[in-house]
Amino acid sequence: QVQLVESGGGLVQPGGSLRLSCAASVRFFSTYDMGWYRQAPGKQRELVAAITRGGSTNYADSVKGRFTISRDNAKNTVYLQMNSLKPEDTAVYYCNLRLGSGYWGQGTQVTVSS
To answer: For all residues of the chain together, what is the average pLDDT?
Structure first.
């Protein structure tokens, strides 16, 4: 079985920074592509950033230049560094492991507000 646990969310002011973590309990973590998604109230879940098993990354246009996805295979963890946060970044952020139909964590709330 696959278990994903997100952490690091919270309340931050516009322009601030936050780092999210996703700890994966899975064998052979280094072989899987990973992603971060977010969902705001009344909106569909959207891809924020993805990182392949080989370390290639891509980002939604709305976060390019502000967010960075990374992974530490020795710790079975993927990170999302979020800088220059905006109110429109407010959402529940979910970790995704790309295997079959995909596996999801429980989500962590990020609120950007003054």
So the answer is: 97
